[in-house]
Design brief:
The protein is an alpha/beta fold. The chain has two domains: 4-176, Rossmann fold (3-Layer(aba) Sandwich); 209-342, Rossmann fold, CATH 3.40.50.1220. The protein has helices at residues 18-34, 48-57, 75-89, 100-112, 228-242, 250-254, 293-297, 329-342, and strands at 4-10, 38-44, 62-66, 93-97, 116-127, 130-137, 142-146, 153-157, 175-176, 209-213, 245-248, 283-287, 304-309, 323-326. The protein has a nine-stranded mixed β-sheet with strand order 7-6-5-8-4-1-2-3-9, with helices on both faces. The longest helix is centred in the first third of the chain and has 17 residues, at 18-34. The protein is elongated.
Length: 343
């Protein structure tokens, strides 16, 4: 057992997502730190562009499992495909992007192979005792460093830790790995994929901007009345025009559960902060939330932070945002939408 294996899923058309291109960069860096060669394992569509990208980044060999059974995200077929590639290569370390698909399948693969798995990895270094990795605990308040003896060791790397690979691709002949699918059919049958109507998607992990809406959007405004319908129209238009991803503070997410008037499209999947997700978008714009510590925890890895709030003494003004606009978010975002419409 030796070397490093990078696993990725191939998108329809043979390419790779941003997170999987980040995994290629991480594999290059980790293999360099360990002083070992690395291979690539690809699952999904026929890996044309994906295989060339991995080879151009330095993968010595490229293995693939592809076919109609392996296009959709499904535990049974994903786990079987990744297991087959791992058994073919026999790696000491296995690296993949932190995604819902990998998060679901790879722990089971690690168990089948007698290995170990760690998620949300954000750093690594080679020491005399071996590989030491880093990850955040307690909602990104404690940075832990540890190693493991079990092999293969599966590492799921958080998004945004490294830049996505963008080097020159190289033509390569990949090796297909056979995987048997049960003759009775998989336990889960994917009948199709239903996309939201154009412009309605609000969670976009690869977006350049994260737009965070706070509970202030649903509170009484200067005229003493609430304007939730207007707030929804402004926010939805901004998301459509900018293709930003939507996040929400815990207070605005909880309103629908507490019987209060709320933003109809806001769910717990949108929640960011200490009790929500930790996004890694390059830029963030917070509106109508106060910038208290639980909010800021979720912004730790956003590189450029801006906020809109009527209170000049809010948390964002305490050095937690690069720029604070002391203004009415309704007026600011309506003007932004006007400018975007004319762009």
């Amino acid at each position: 057992m030796s070397g490093l294996l990078m696993l990725a899923t191939v998108t329809p058309g043979g390419g790779l997502s941003r997170s999987d291109r980040e995994a290629i960069t991480a594999a290059r860096q980790l293999a360099g730190a360990l002083g070992v060669p690395w291979d690539a394992g690809l699952v999904g569509d026929v890996p044309g562009e994906a295989a060339s990208a991995a080879a151009g980044a330095g993968a010595e060999r490229v293995f693939a499992v592809h076919g109609d059974d392996f296009l959709p995200s499904r535990y049974e077929t994903d786990a079987a495909a990744f297991e087959a590639i791992c058994r073919k290569v026999g790696p000491e370390y296995v690296l993949a992007a932190e995604s819902a698909r990998m998060h679901r399948a790879l722990p089971g693969v690690a168990y089948r192979l007698g290995g170990a798995v760690d998620t949300h990895v954000c750093g690594w270094e080679k020491q005399e005792a071996g590989l030491v990795v880093q990850r955040w605990f307690y909602r990104q308040r404690i940075l832990g460093r540890f190693t493991r003896e079990k092999r293969p060791w599966f590492l799921l790397v958080d998004g945004g830790v490294v830049e996505p690979w963008s080097g020159t691709p190289r033509e390569v002949r990949y090796e297909s790995v056979p995987v048997e699918v049960s003759l009775d059919g998989p336990a889960t049958t994917v009948e199709g994929i239903r996309d939201l109507a154009g412009g309605e998607q609000t969670i976009r992990p690869d977006a350049e901007l994260l737009f965070v809406a706070g509970a202030g959007w649903t509170k009484k405004q200067a005229d003493g009345k609430t304007h939730v319908a207007e707030a929804e129209a402004i926010i939805k238009e901004f998301l459509r025009l900018s293709q930003a991803s939507l996040g929400g503070s815990k207070s605005v997410v909880d309103q629908s559960q507490e019987g209060q008037e709320s933003l109809s499209f806001m769910t717990h999947l949108h929640q960011v902060g200490q009790t929500g997700s930790t996004p890694r978008h390059p830029k963030g714009l917070a509106t109508c939330c106060h910038g208290e510590e639980p909010h800021v925890v979720g912004w730790r890895f956003i590189r450029e932070r801006r906020a809109v709030n009527l209170d000049p003494g809010c948390g964002w003004a305490q050095g937690k945002a690069d720029v604070l606009y002391v203004a009415d978010a309704f007026e600011v975002m309506a003007k932004v939408n006007e400018l975007l419409r004319g762009a």
